[in-house]
Each structure stands twice: as structure tokens, then as C-alpha cells.
TrEMBL record:
It is found in: Cell inner membrane. This is PPP family 3-phenylpropionic acid transporter. GO terms for cellular component: plasma membrane. Residues 9-363 form the Major facilitator superfamily associated domain. The chain crosses the membrane at residues 12-33, 39-63, 75-92, 98-123, 135-154, 160-180, 204-225, 237-257, 269-293, 330-352, 358-378. Keywords: Cell inner membrane, Cell membrane, Membrane, Transmembrane, Transmembrane helix, Transport. It comes from the Bacteria. GO terms for molecular function: lactose binding; lactose:proton symporter activity. It is a multi-pass membrane protein.
């Protein structure tokens, strides 16, 4: 029987809070730290791509181990501890190749945590899976707190201090894993057929194409958005506030996402959100100097992350069955956040090195439109809605 009650909600929420608090420092400010250390744009892009690139292998390996062993929580604790230890080597300030090795190692373990935890969360929520958005929003709150708080600190402190700010967040993530209860024991045999059979379905592989292109389109954003704004003349606190605004919009949508998922088919949600994402990148490319337009573009983060991520988590849950949940979430993380994010970051680096950040964001919009086309033609989800018995109004 799945545990229920307020304590379960807070235990689950706490781990999301610290995981995304660490992400809230790395995504907006790590590129600025690397720039401060004297790395070229292409080197920055490659170093940032490692955070996404390890998602190609790490979640699939750890997801497979979790499915086979049933010890997902133990793997989460081990992954968060090893991520902390590996990241500490950043303090030695190695050169490009040394830092590349450090980032590969810490992100290999860090990226194992989230897909395993998504499975534990859905199992613990059980029949109350509608509450997923309200649990997950605490990750967004952690991200906002880090972005805003550390943005203010970095107005007064040198960006070179950044590794010392990240380490306590990794420690908090490790400690939070001990407050989580393991998932209830359920049957683990597959009831949707082997993974290869699932992946052959057009509605599944087109789903992965959509999300691969989504994350590729985010490459310029996660790698060069802060640098793009700094070049225009925004200060670090303003940059942090703009990042936080995007995630605040994400929180707002997460609060009502269960109603959206119950009312509209998942395909409709994903297509609309993807089209808005392409529009967002075009706006950032052309109008970032106009603050009120940029504020509107940041509010669209509710579509480009919250709507697509929440719908995707439920989509994986519906298509991969009990026996393949870990592998399904790992494939989602690896093929989309991993391969897509790394590809987008590397291509963005080439675009910026060749011409400008504007061209990189234009590339992001084009990638997103390719994903929309694939989903429009081939993605026919079954079930259409995230919750059984729901009907579109």
C-alpha cells in the first residue's frame, strides 16, 4: 500500500527542491563562471554540453539497474553522494581537459538521480498521481530561490566563487534522499511488451523526436542566454530575475497542470506548447533589448518546460508499463535532455563562434518546428488523456 498524507508530499518535494536548486545555479551562472575562467565560446559550449551529454548514458544505465534490482532509492543516494564528491574537484581549478573530466564524472552521477526519483514519486503517489505537478513545483521553487538569491550575491561577489556556492546544494540533495521512503513493492514484470516493441510504435518514437528537438532548441538558452543578456547590457541580478521569472511561470502552470491534463489530450498540449516554444526563441533572438517583450518571452517558459515536461512524464507512465518505468524515464532523460540538450549546446556554440547568439536562438526555433512537424504527423497517444476516464471539454 502506498504511503499517503502530508509527510509523503513534503518528503518527495524536498528532494526536488534541492536538485533544482543546484540546477538553478549551474544553468544561469556556470557559463559566466567558465567565461570568467578564460574559456572560449566553443569550449564553454562543450563544457556545458557535458551536463546534458551524460544524460544519454547515465539515466539509461541507472534506470536499467533500478528496474532490475528494485533498489532505486539506494541508487539515488549513491548517485547524489558521488556527484558531491566529484564536483569538489572543481575547486582545484583544472584546465579545460581536467574540468571536462570533472564535469563528465559529477554529471554522470547527478543525472542518475532525477529519472529514478520520478518513478519513485509516481509510485508513492499511486492513485493520487494528479498531485505530481504540486510535488514537482517545489523543484521550480528551488530553482527560483537559487537563481534570484545567487544572482543578488554575484552582484557583490566575484563569479569565481561559484563552485563554493554549489557544493552545499549537492550536500543538501544527498541529505534529502534519506528523508524519502522507498516505493511500494509492485509487480515488475512488463505488461506492455519488451522495450524494443514499445519504441517501434510511431506514437512513441515521434514523441522522442519531439522532445529531442525541444531540448536541442533549449541549447542556446541554457548555454548562452546569460551571456546574450550580458552582452546587451543586463546586470547579473537582472539576468537572475529574468531566469526566475521563467520558472515562476512554470510554477504557476504546475499548480493547475492536473486540470489541463484532465481536460485536453496530451498530443494537443504538447503541440501547442512546442509551437509557443518556437515563438519564444524567435522573440528572444530579435527583441531581447526591449524589456517588456523579453518578460513576455520568459513567461512562455510555462509552455516550453512545465506543460511539455508534465505531459511527457505521464505519457511515459502510460506507454511503458510497470516493468519498464525506470527505462522509460531514463530513455526520456537520455534521448531528449541528454542527446538533444548536448546537440543543441554544441550547435549553439558553433553558431555563436561563427556569428552571434541571435543566430543560435534562431536555430533553436527551427529545431523546435521540426519536432512539431514530426509530432503532428505521427504522434497519436493512447490513452489520449493523462488520467483514466478524463474527457476533453
Amino acid at each position: 500500500m502506498a504511503p499517503s498524507g502530508l509527510s509523503v508530499y513534503w518528503r518527495l518535494s524536498n528532494l526536488y527542491l534541492w536538485f533544482f536548486a543546484a540546477l538553478g545555479v549551474l544553468m544561469p551562472y556556470w557559463a559566466l563562471y567558465l567565461q570568467d575562467q578564460g574559456f572560449a565560446y566553443l569550449e564553454i559550449a562543450l563544457l556545458m554540453a557535458t551536463i546534458q551529454g551524460t544524460k544519454i548514458i547515465a539515466p539509461n544505465l541507472w534506470g536499467w539497474l533500478g528496474d532490475r534490482s528494485g533498489q532505486r532509492l539506494r541508487l539515488i543516494r549513491m548517485g547524489s553522494m558521488l556527484a558531491l564528491l566529484c564536483f569538489a574537484f572543481v575547486l582545484l581549478r583544472p584546465g579545460f581537459w581536467g574540468l571536462l573530466l570533472v564535469m563528465l564524472s559529477f554529471s554522470f552521477f547527478w543525472n542518475a538521480v532525477l529519472p529514478l526519483f520520478e518513478v519513485i514519486t509516481l509510485h508513492n503517489l499511486g492513485s493520487d498521481a494528479r498531485r505530481y505537478g504540486r510535488v514537482r513545483l517545489w523543484g521550480s521553487i528551488g530553482f527560483i530561490g537559487s537563481v534570484a538569491g545567487f544572482g543578488a550575491l554575484l552582484e557583490w561577489l566575484p563569479v569565481s566563487i561559484l563552485p563554493w556556492l554549489v557544493l552545499p546544494l549537492f550536500m543538501a540533495l544527498f541529505l534529502a534522499s534519506f528523508g524519502v521512503r522507498d516505493e511500494p513493492r509492485t509487480r515488475r514484470q512488463p505488461h506492455h511488451g519488451p522495450v524494443t516493441a514499445i519504441l517501434k510504435k510511431p506514437e512513441v518514437w515521434s514523441f522522442f523526436i519531439l522532445n529531442f528537438m525541444l531540448q536541442a532548441s533549449h541549447g542556446p538558452y541554457y548555454t548562452f542566454f546569460s551571456i546574450h543578456l550580458e552582452q546587451i547590457g543586463y546586470g547579473k541580478f537582472s539576468i537572475g530575475t529574468l531566469w526566475a521569472l521563467g520558472v515562476l511561470a512554470e510554477v504557476g502552470l504546475f499548480l493547475v497542470m492536473h486540470k489541463v491534463l484532465a481536460r485536453f489530450p496530451m498530443r494537443t498540449i504538447m503541440l501547442c506548447a512546442a509551437i509557443l516554444t518556437a515563438f519564444r526563441w524567435l522573440v528572444i533572438a530579435e527583441f531581447s533589448a526591449i524589456l517588456w517583450i523579453l518578460l513576455g518571452a520568459q513567461l512562455l517558459h510555462a509552455a516550453s518546460y512545465a506543460a511539455l515536461h508534465a505531459a511527457s512524464i505521464h505519457y511515459i507512465h502510460a506507454h511503458f508499463g510497470e516493468g519498464h518505468q525506470g527505462q522509460g524515464q531514463a530513455l526520456y532523460s537520455g534521448l531528449t535532455y541528454g542527446a538533444g540538450g548536448a546537440t543543441g549546446a554544441a550547435l549553439a556554440g558553433l553558431m555563436v563562434e561563427w556569428e552571434s547568439t541571435v543566430l543560435a536562438f534562431q536555430m533553436g526555433a527551427g529545431a523546435m518546428l521540426i519536432g512539431v512537424l514530426a509530432a503532428w504527423i505521427w504522434m497519436r497517444p493512447n490513452p489520449e488523456h493523462a488520467y483514466a476516464g478524463s474527457r476533453a471539454g
